[in-house]
Design brief:
267 residues; 10 helices; 34% helix
Length: 267
């Protein structure tokens, strides 16, 4: 027999045997997939941000169907996604509070300064590894844009003044920016038109804070004294607002001597 023809026959037989094995394996090892998983995955935003506590959108869809995870856990999708998922599952969507990122730093270029000129990889993580960062304030925004790279919605950018700013119209509150910030100055808070936040993370004493940033919290406690609901406490020379207790009276905003308390919705 012609050697070439024989080789073709052998290869064909091997291919057929392999195909039969694969078909048999697919039948034996087939795992039924609930069609609702695919439907839920389709109505999710596809950000795969992990804000729901799952590995990604597909994993969240599987958890909703198989483990009974709440249908309103998709932060980027918000109420619309919750309603869509609830309709597929045949349940009530429940309340879904919009979340937004807030950059807790007021240290713009006109209010603080640099310790040195950094020449290296344009990354917050990189500059943080060199003497704690190049900013005079060790707690402030480094301004190299790791958060910008992490955001899948183009909702955060570093301004000309050197501090990251959030576009609240685009922000979905997924938390990706907060996760990569080496100074942990980005916080995800419930969206509210009146409740304020402290735009500072400096924990130095007031005098030291004033030396490095004219817009830093000095821990004076005036805001805490002014709050009628006890929503503000001062720990480690830094004021904190408990959003669950805050009623949005904004008395703290008026009392702050350094103007570091702001209403995010008005920024």
């Amino acid at each position: 027999m012609n050697p070439i023809l024989l080789a073709i026959i052998i290869v064909t037989v091997i291919g057929l045997i392999g195909a039969v094995i694969l078909v048999a394996a697919s039948i034996v090892m087939y795992v039924p997939v609930d069609e609702r998983v695919e439907k839920i995955t389709e109505v999710l935003p596809g950000a795969n941000c992990g804000a729901c506590g799952c590995a990604g959108c597909a994993d969240y869809a599987k958890c909703v169907v198989e483990d009974g995870v709440p249908v309103n856990k998709c932060v980027p999708g918000g109420a619309a996604a919750a309603q869509a998922v609830a309709a597929i599952m045949g349940v009530e969507a429940g309340a879904s509070t919009p979340m937004k990122a807030v950059v807790r730093c007021s240290g713009t270029c006109d209010k603080t300064s640099k310790k040195y000129e950094f020449e290296g990889i344009h990354s917050c993580q990189s500059v943080k590894g060199l003497y704690g960062g190049d900013g005079a304030c060790a707690f402030g925004c480094l301004g190299y844009g790791d958060c910008v790279q992490a955001c899948a919605f183009d909702a955060i950018h570093v301004s000309d003044l050197g501090v990251a700013l959030v576009d609240r119209a685009k922000c979905t509150g997924c938390g990706a920016c907060a996760a990569v910030c080496p100074n942990t100055i980005i916080e995800i808070v419930p969206e509210h038109k009146r409740k304020p936040v402290i735009l500072c993370q400096n924990q130095d004493k007031g005098g030291q804070t004033r030396k490095v940033c004219t817009a830093g919290c000095i821990g004076c406690g005036k805001c805490a004294k002014a709050c009628p609901k006890g929503a503000i406490t001062v720990e480690n020379n830094l004021a904190h607002i408990d959003q669950s207790l805050c009623v949005g009276c904004q008395l703290c905003v008026k009392e702050c001597p350094v103007g570091v308390i702001h209403i995010p919705a008005q920024m």
